[in-house]
Amino acid sequence: MNTDVRMEQRPVQVAYRKAGFLAVLGKNLAGAFRFLKNDPFSMTGAVIYLFFILIALFAPLLAPYDPHEMIKHNGKLAFNQPPSAEHWLGTTNMGRDIFSQLVYGAKPAMMVGLTAAFFVVVVGTLVGLFAGYYKGRVDGVLMRVTDIAFGIPFEPFVIVLVAFLGPSVWNIVLAMGLLLWRDTARVIRSQVLTVRERSFVEAAKISGASDLRILFVQVAPNILPLSFLYGSLAMGWAILTEAAVSFLGFGDPAMMSWGFMLNDAYASQALSREAYWWIIPPGIFIMLTVMAGFYIGRGSEEILYPRLKNQ
Amino acid sequence: MAENPIIEVRGLSKHFEARQHLFRKSSTGAGVLKAVDDVSFRIPKGHSLGIAGESGCGKTTTAKMLLKLYEPTSGSFLFNGKDITHLRAKEELKQFRKQAQLMFQNPFEALNPRFTIFRSLLEPLIVHDIGTKEERAAFIKQALEQVNLIPAENFFEKYPHQMSGGQLQRVVLARALIVDPIFLVADEPVSMLDVSVRAGVLNLMKTLTERLQLTTVYISHDLSLISYMCEQTAIMYLGKVVEIGDTMSVLQKPKHPYTQALLAAVPSPDPDEEPEEVLIKNHVPSPINMPNGCHFQDRCPYTEAICREKTPELRQAETGQIVACHMVTPFFDRKAEREEHVI
């Protein structure tokens, strides 16, 4: 009955305007939101991401100090201070405010995470769609390229690329864009192989739709949830990689990231000084973002395989 | 049949190369599966042809060739008087796609699960660039009303999983008819539906195809469906048409032993009626590398030497239909004769 009432309020033209690829995407997003409301795991993940995105956007407002500033009190460098009302998480050995660093560190994490996830979703989905739909030679070529991408070890590749191109967050993103799409492409391809055999694809062919139209209008919406799943996993992966690369000292020194903080702490023997306020917060933030990716992934698994819910 | 038939196929064949092992060459060489072999028929405008036969006899392959989803291996296909066997040009193919439509067997698979009904029906209109925004919405409303989904607006925003099989099959029919086709293929249109809604869908198809003067092909293994829906019937066995003609003659005075066996297998609703004796033996042989002669030779109760040597040609029986059997002319009622023998 509910739907009937809704229908009367929605004139035909509105329904028409909603058609098209954007509408399908919009519907997917709307569906994703409805899904989040019902799934505590993905809700948690989404809230964590949202939290960090907000922190990244409003970092200058939230941070009490410039993260690079060497703070002096009464003309004396305030170094290695434990947490206090003035410095919530204490200061580094160079007198920098750790809380401010932590807040500013959200920005590279989110930048790297979101752009890497974007590339993973776009490249992986496109490769998977074309390989699965056209099969034959197209599939052969694309899957051999994927095999090569699988053959390259990820972290050494990132380090080598950054060593060649210079330490910049964007080079880390580039490295991820070049490699991380491989899992998405494989999985999307296998999903497309089953979707393309269903009769609604044949129906679209009979109605005269071109291959590209069938691919993007009929097949793509059916695999998008899977792409989003891999995107959210890739986001966690990317943040972890950025942290690892920065910790190893290949990060962008101008950009305050959590990995860079850890590297700084490690290099200045924060561990032996038991400066837990310096080591633990960035560690927890890295863990939270990676966890958020996996929580969303875990939730989407249940969309794809509803049976998991009952177990 | 003076006017041009809508559908005319001559010697239509579709052969598939049976796949070989990668490392082990088969000793007989590549096998050839003759899914459809030398099939000819014509359907005049507004008429309907039923194609019946057991699984694997080539019914669906024939349907797919009629819709140009498969390219025939040989033979020719005339659509509305025009040879379109090897039609490749994009625009002309699109024109054909607008005129020939398919009704699917499984309505639960035939609609995109992520599209609303409105979106599914809009798709063909976008593809063929029919109408303006407002006109399209009106067309969709009309198409749904035509298939008795009333009020149509209630179905616009529904997703396939929110509807029943019977309703979905009506939507599938509406989608086929929305582009105003002249030819409709129905591949087992009701076999996936509950028995209680079958008659409704069939009656709807019957009225609509008559009103719209559609030329139709029904693919089914259900002879009662075909006798209800079709003026003409073709019986296929292992890729060949073994008997074709007016439905009345084919189903009431069957000449080919296979047709007779098919009809004998139709169960009777009367529990006291003694089931008819099944005359044929064995199972359907593998369609790969068929021997010479009649495809039915190993199962037929009347096989003679000639059946193993020569492929029977289609010949007209005195009851009107065309039959591919060496034993048919001169016609004699074999069943009667056989009973005499038994006695």
TrEMBL record, chain A:
Membrane topology: Multi-pass membrane protein
Listed GO CC annotations: plasma membrane
Location of this chain's protein in the cell: Cell membrane
Domain of life, per lineage: Bacteria
One GO term (biological process): transmembrane transport
InterPro entries: BP-dependent_transpt_permease (IPR050366), MetI-like (IPR000515), MetI-like_sf (IPR035906), OppC_N (IPR025966)
Keyword line: Cell membrane, Membrane, Transmembrane, Transmembrane helix, Transport
Chain ranges passing through the membrane: 41-63, 109-134, 154-181, 228-250, 275-297
Residue ranges of domain ABC transmembrane type-1 in the record: 106-297
Predominant cellular place of this UniProt entry's protein: membrane
Sequence similarity: Belongs to the binding-protein-dependent transport system permease family.
The protein's name: Peptide/nickel transport system permease protein
